[in-house]
Design a protein that fits this description.
With 638 residues, the chain is α/β, with parallel strands linked by helices. The protein contains 23 helices and 14 strands. Helices cover 42% and strands 10% of the residues. InterPro entries: DNA_helicase_UvrD/REP, P-loop_NTPase, UvrD-like_ATP-bd.
Amino acid sequence: MKSVDYLGMTEDAAKTIISNRELQSYDFERAQDLVSIFLGEGNKKSAESLGLEMVESKSGYILVTPEEKFSSEKNTLTIDFECLDFRIVNHNLIVAAIQKTLRFCVKYWGNLNFNNNEYIPPSSSKAIVFPFPMNSGAPYRITLERQPSEKRMSRRFPGKHLLAYRFGTNGGDGTKEEYPSTNFNKAIEILFSHESYQKNKDEEKRLQTSFITADLTEEKVDTSSILGFSDPFKKLSSKQLTFIKTVYNEPARIEGPAGSGKTICMVLKILYWLNEVNKQGKKVKFLFIAPSTEMVNNVHYFFEVLNGSIESYDENLLEQVEIKTLQDVCTQFLKQDIHETELLDEDTFESKNIQLLHLVEIVSDEKNTLEQKKGFISSELYKFINDEDEFHIADMLRHEISVVIKGRSDENLDSYKDVKRPSYGLPIQNKNDRSFIFDIFNKYSDILNNLSQFDVDDVAISALSKLDSPIWRRRRKNDGFDAIFIDEVHLFNMNELSLVHYLTKDSSLSPISYAIDLAQALGDVAWNDVDFNNSVGIKNETEQVKLNAVFRSSPLITDLAFSITSHGANIFTNFDNPISEAPYVYNDQLEDEHPKYYLIDSSSNIYSKAFELADTIRDKLGARKHQVAIIFFDRFTY
């Protein structure tokens, strides 16, 4: 499609765009129309989907609201597409840039205070907006001219007029930079034309009604507001709905950073398909797998609240869903072979933490005697163990023991020396390194033997032997599940995931839906998409939905997360950072909030103060418990 030369809009049109929650992230279908308009490729239909009216001319177009009337004084924004091109960044960032620019304009027109990312140079008619987190390197900026009209024109067209004419990492010629005015003059003529505000009354009524019906701005924009919201499906983005409506007996993947609504989507998908199947007079059996007992409790809560939010929903349908940890599923098959007291912990998450603690203790001892083994192991492995933090080393050892030694080598040294290792993990260079690591594994096994306990991998591998058997193959059709849903799949390793496809009713199908955040993928640091699909038995193509918008955290927290993930340890060389392209979905009031710091005299008082503050914030905001987060930086305290 041929791109126009300019876009003009009134203040009312800008306010309409920034107040519509479906225009805050490219995940929503309407935001795609917004992007097309701001790339100069829009049309009347795309403007109508935003609840706006488009007036076209030979070389450009303007946006006004359907109810807007002619006025001799207006505040306006013009974007010169001959000088400014948003195509240099991806669509998610384009949406963020649009929203940030329009929010600045509204503040400027209303004489409001500016944020840190908005700057007006002294003794200059320019304005600079930095729409993205200012990480290392030259930040992207949008340059606006605040006095684009000549004196003669300013008398003809009263109001505050802005011209956006530069976008990129280049600052141009500074505060005295010349700007083009041809397209601005064309836009301002149309914006102040009587003809631009003469509409057919019936059409105006139709557009207005359509806009009001889809306007969700009176509701909170955060994903957590879906809990308790009447008809929660109306709150979802187009991408979230795509995942939910993918047939339950087909593989589907939903990916996104923390706070993008993955768990909510998993729960809503189950509720949606339980209802659809029930309409057909059928019954199904679903399994929801969560990584910890705490998450199981949260999911039960989500089901309870969301089920009550859907009109005329039959609560009895929830009896067709089992919500468990994978360890619970395994122990169910091993109930004659293992007792709960023989597990490191009944909670999978805590069991992995205890496993890590045992390995930390061993690593600490190894560090004390490492100099004696310097000539035996490779320099790379020596440097890694000598320099890295004990917990980091233990994390990598846990992966090596779980996936390679137990999962691929059957705890046999000769097999381990020859087995193919993952692409990344411990810096193992030769067989001596493998012997050294296997010796650590033996020490770890001795600890478990002395305690007469089993870790999560022992349980998973033992359960696998029960599932891959003639007895289960006969029972599978009756006792298996029609579909399996795995939340936080990045927290599971390959041994655990290899069980999943045995739990379905039909071995020829892959009815597995899962949610993943690659930035948190510490369950098994070395798996990729191919490894994962092979482990869980997915053979056919998976419907993939990638969420980008983060609803859970404020912009300041998102910036912090971006900074941390951008400057992580060198061992995460293939690290996928979803925060780098996460748009902000917040109003200005939330964005202006700053953290408060408290000095507490002891550790025990910190915990009580944290819960006290959480209750205070909850009361102040009128929020529910699930809408307030307490973040621990120590996994064991958590």
